Amino acid sequence: MNRTVLVVLAASALALTVRSAATVAAAPAEVTRKIYISATDSKGMPITDLTAADITVKEGGKDRTVVGLQPATAPMHIAMLVDDNGTGAFQAGAFQFIQKVHGRGQFSISMLTPQALSLVDFTEDAEGLKGALNKLGQRGRQQPDGDQLPEAIADAAKALQQRKAERPIVLALTIAGGILHSVEPNNIMRIIRSTGTALNVVYVTGADLGQVLGDGPKESGGRIEEAGTGQAIAPAMVRIADSLLNQYELTYTLPDGVKMADRINVATSRKGIKLTAQTRISDK
After folding, report:
1. Beta partners for 266?
2. Pairing mode of beta strands 248-254, 224-227
3. Which residue among 72, 174, 257, 278 is least packed, with the fewest CB closer than 10 Å?
4. Of 177, 234, 185, 181, which is closest to residue 206 (Cα–Cα)?
């Protein structure tokens, strides 16, 4: 083979290599999104053997590709907001909740007086948490203010975002509820959504929840539990603890260039399973 032929072949091979590299470089990049979900059976017991093949995701009404589902291991940041009108009704349940979830993240505790008063900032120190919980006993009846709890939820969500919490969670405990008068509830819902915070609510029967407390858990992937009596409060909080302890980390992808949507539907092909998952998500 003469020198001219060798040069031509080498040039052709180089051109093919360059074109191949350009093709790889131009391949569309997928955008990966992550959310947290949990699942229970018909008796409310956690389901712990879900796989990615069991789950479907639609975002903005379009099918998305599920690429991973595994038990959530990232530490939680849980902001507990206690709105008990000074009755101490949630103290025992709060003890049980933190005792069950302790070791899996950090907690902050605030009580409404009616303004939110911080008792302890985010910590996993058992003694610090115990000291805060001891302050949640009976303190004398207080006049409820419907604006205070939703506003405290928004402030907690923003604080969680500032901390760059990977699993940001707000647990709101209320006797009176939270009907807003001076703040537009959709503004608070947008804050919850944009920060990726999961709102969980335990309320005593008769509480006037309003939009934030009533719709927030479903939209954000949290749980809402009604407690008909004082004795029912602790079991309701334990159910939320079990849900958090058995969460899955779900990842799915969007093709490059596809605009993110703010509505999401997560479903399972397995029968008799109830999923707790977001229905609204940030579109940023």
Report:
1. 57
2. unpaired
3. 257
4. 177
Q: Which pLDDT does position 239 carry in this prediction?
A: 96
Q: Residue ranges of the chain with pLDDT lower than 70?
A: 1-28
- Alpha-carbon distance of 150 to 216, in angstroms, equals 10
Q: Which two tokens stand for residue 53?
A: 């093949």
Q: Can you name the residues that pair with 80 across neighbouring β-strands?
A: 109, 171
CA atoms within 13 A on the CB side of 255: 5
pTM of the predicted structure, to 2 decimals: 0.88
Residue type, 156: A
According to CATH, what is the number of the domain 76-245? 3.40.50.410
Secondary structure (3-state) at 267: strand
197-249 tens-digit pLDDT: 999 999 999 999 999 999 999 999 999 999 998 899 999 999 999 999 999 99
Q: Which is nearest to 86 in space by CA: 131, 142, 19, 35?
A: 142
Under 8 Å between Cβ of 93 and 236:
yes
